[in-house]
């Protein structure tokens, strides 16, 4: 990669931060430095929506195997922890995060997409967890999120076989939210909604507190939003 080009590119529109994995010659494989830059890009914005995409014909090949090949055990653990921090940053971001997946998503690329709020694929997208073929597995939170998203049976099938699934199969198993020619349009669709409400919905959906605590928080936030939008609600009622 040329020294003057970052592996992560940021472009801020009015309501959407576009974060591009920008290493197309390596199918956007991620080094430790790129992971750190990605974490900062996703966390360091007040835009209500973050759109995560890959440059070139792939979404993301996951971890850079040139890096992994040189790691000893402790360094490999640190690299896995780094990837987990990035996935957690995506999941915990105040912004709604949309992963636009065009072309192959492999290994860590799938794991980062799993942390997004919406995974939107083009018809050309494909997905695989091929680590098992190298004697590895997805350690950027994949063993936690994959069964949560698609169910234990589908998750075990993908992770134990390393097989590749196309966009339609990914949609059927719930791995992606939609299949469309223009995933960016979905990010823009979300950004048309009220920013505070987007943050509130994400926070409530991601809340893992006991049910009674979640319900109390839900009512408190709902009350605040009703007060804030009272005029708009009245106008809609009277129209």
TrEMBL record:
Spell out the InterPro entries in the cross-references.
Answer: ClpP/crotonase-like_dom_sf, Enoyl-CoA_hyd/isom_CS, Enoyl-CoA_hydra/iso
Output the SUPFAM superfamilies linked to this UniProt entry: ClpP/crotonase
Q: Which residues form the signal peptide?
A: none
Tell me one GO molecular function of this protein. Answer: catalytic activity
Q: Which domain of life is it from?
A: Archaea
What family classification does the UniProt entry report for this protein? Belongs to the enoyl-CoA hydratase/isomerase family.
PANTHER family, alphabetized: ENOYL-COA HYDRATASE, IP11341P-RELATED
> What protein name applies here?
Enoyl-CoA hydratase/isomerase family protein
Q: Which organism is it from?
A: Halorussus gelatinilyticus
């Amino acid at each position: 990669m040329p020294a003057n080009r970052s592996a992560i590119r940021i472009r801020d529109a009015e309501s959407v931060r576009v974060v591009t994995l920008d290493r197309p010659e390596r199918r956007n494989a991620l080094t430790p430095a790129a992971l750190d830059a990605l974490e900062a890009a996703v966390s360091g914005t007040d835009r209500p929506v973050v759109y995560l995409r890959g440059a070139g014909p792939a979404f993301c090949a996951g971890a850079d195997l040139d890096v992994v090949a040189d790691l000893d055990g402790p360094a490999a653990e640190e690299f896995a922890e780094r990837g987990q921090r990035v996935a957690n940053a995506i999941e915990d971001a105040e912004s709604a995060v949309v992963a636009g997946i065009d072309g192959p998503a492999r290994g860590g690329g799938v794991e980062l997409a799993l942390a997004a709020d919406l995974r939107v694929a083009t018809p050309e997208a494909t997905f695989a967890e091929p680590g098992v073929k190298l004697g590895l597995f997805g350690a950027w939170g994949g063993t936690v999120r994959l069964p949560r998203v698609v169910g234990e049976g589908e998750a075990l099938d993908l992770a134990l076989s390393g097989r590749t699934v196309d966009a339609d199969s990914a949609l059927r198993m719930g791995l992606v939210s939609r299949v469309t020619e223009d995933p960016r349009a979905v990010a823009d669709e979300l950004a048309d909604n009220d920013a505070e409400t987007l943050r509130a919905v994400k926070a409530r959906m991601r809340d893992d507190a006991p049910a009674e605590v979640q319900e109390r928080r839900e009512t408190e936030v709902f009350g605040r939003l009703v007060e804030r939008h009272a005029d708009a609600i009245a106008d809609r009622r009277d129209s």
